[in-house]
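A quick aside before the break. I want you to see a complete sequence-to-structure record at least once, exactly as it would be stored in a machine-readable document. Don't worry about memorizing anything.
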Amino acid sequence: MAERLKATVLKTVVGRPTGGSNPSSSATYSLKLHRQNPAPPLERDSLGDFISVRGGAALSGSWSQEGNDSQKSLRLIDGDHHNRNDPSNKMNQTNEKFGNYTLLERIAVGGMAEVFLARQTSIEGFEKEIVIKRIRPHLSEQKSFVNMFLAEARLAAQLSHSNIVQIYDLGNVQDSYFIAMEYLAGRDLSALIPKTRKLGIPFPIEYALRITSSICEALHYAHNKTDDQGAPLNIVHRDISPENIRVGWTGDVKILDFGIAKAASHVHETKAGEIKGKLCYMAPEQVLGKPVDRRSDLFSVGIILYELLTGLKLYTGTNDLDIMNKIVEGKIHPPGYFRDNVPPEVEAITMKALTKSRDARYQNANDLQFDIDQFLSGHEFTPSKIHLSNFVKQLFRQELAEEHLRRQSASHPTPAPAPEKNATKTAPFSPPLPENDRALPRSSSNELPETSPLQIRVTDAEMTQLGQLGEPASLSPQEVVEDIIQHYLKYQH
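That is the input. The structure line, written in tokens, reads:
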């Protein structure tokens, strides 16, 4: 079993000029690695430079050792898909009027668009919460992008399926193009997977299969969609990734951004972090620039299933070329290499979806879904939408309660109640798992883990960025660092 590490980052005070803060000043952080499941000593001086891609964000650095002292330099590369460098990238409450809509909160911002939670109002007090994706102004000036965006959005608007986020409107307000789409309250997989890892539990296999089955159902519908004359529309998503799979508090699973990926591919000024984020979920033929088809989406589904089962990104590398080479080479450790309770049938399904040759891969989403559902039907636990709903809500019960209070106070401001003196503390959360899904071994709280010091030098601004990178998944800066180290060491075989 691969070595599991726990990181703790402690800040060391460094001299700073008096008279105010200096955003470019440096600080030293002491990183203590708590080794779980001890493995043979690593040749740390041979690790060299590394890079970890997390949801499109890249963090690079170098690692060297002299005697007993390890030194690491850390550097952030660009922003990720949501542009964490933007200080406004937090849930910003607003009441901006935007055509027939009221923008309530900005919930994400990236290189292509801003995403808002909005309210649509009509006669007799009718109100509906929706999501507005507003194209960034500089892209509205690129005619080729606008034409592609409008064409693909019109095509995606024809899709009407319970597992696809519905597009309601497409328009232009004050020279800003936008899409109004269905709002599904919940979390996407890019938040769900790290959350289970943070809580110390493997993602339940049955829920991973339930989510994947729903994705397949949506893709089968979209891939086979025809026009009014019965001619196939040949729709391919092109960007099936954790960020585009939403799991609602209701247990619904929906795919986002049909049609948007093709338009985004025509944007030439793409950040390096965004490129890396997409590369990690591309099929080999997509990486090689060959025409994509429905089987390319199925390869991406296989990557998501693999990540759900193992808690690890399938492809990481030191740069774009390294990631591309790994995808094209097609060398993949089976999920059971990292998790010992993966059933052979589930492993076979996953590896078939990840077959390098698309001719040997699943040929359509229906076949993949059939194999998944066949396994679940004969399994002792077959999760329903209600099961998945309860699981997700319990995973995020604290955040859900805070979000409810925040939304409630925004609509009906009231003074905050005084805290009770003898308030009972909530017991640590332990989400319910299927009985047959055993957790990975955990060390006893009484056992002192083995540690070794490691020094990191980063600027205060970079430390803030570490916090912003982990914020969407509720990860602390040290947990982001821990994730980087774990992902690097996993792939040094």
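Two observations worth writing down. The chain has 15 helices and 15 strands. The domain at 92-182 is CATH 3.30.200.20 (Phosphorylase Kinase; domain 1). We'll return to this after the break.
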